[in-house]
Amino acid sequence: MKLDDFVSETLKQIIKGVVAAQEYGNTQNAKVNPVSARFHGNSEGHSYCRETGLPLQKVEFNVAVTVTEEKTSANDGESVGSISVTSASSNSSQNSSVSRIQFEVPVLLPITGM
Q: Is 81 contained in some domain?
C-alpha cells in the first residue's frame, strides 16, 4: 500500500470511529472531542470543558498496523474459504510491514446530574 493511501485510509477510519463514539457519547451524557474543549496555555497537556469547567480526559491510542502480502502459486491447487489446498509443488512468498499510529482524543466523561 502506498503511503498516501495508508494515511488517507487511517485518517478516514479514525474519523469514522470518533463520529461513532460521539453518537454513543450523546446517549450517555458524555462528549467525545467536544467543541467546548479548551487547552491551558501555561500547563501543557491539560484541557477542560469551557461550558462546565470540568477537566477533559485524554484517551491516547498507540496502534501497530501490520500489512501482510502473500503470493502463492501451485500446479493443482484450489482455495476453499480461508483454507487453501495445494499440490506438493507450490511456491510462496510473503512480505509484511508494520506501521505505528499515535493519536489522542479528548473526552468529557459523564457526570451524574448534568
A: no
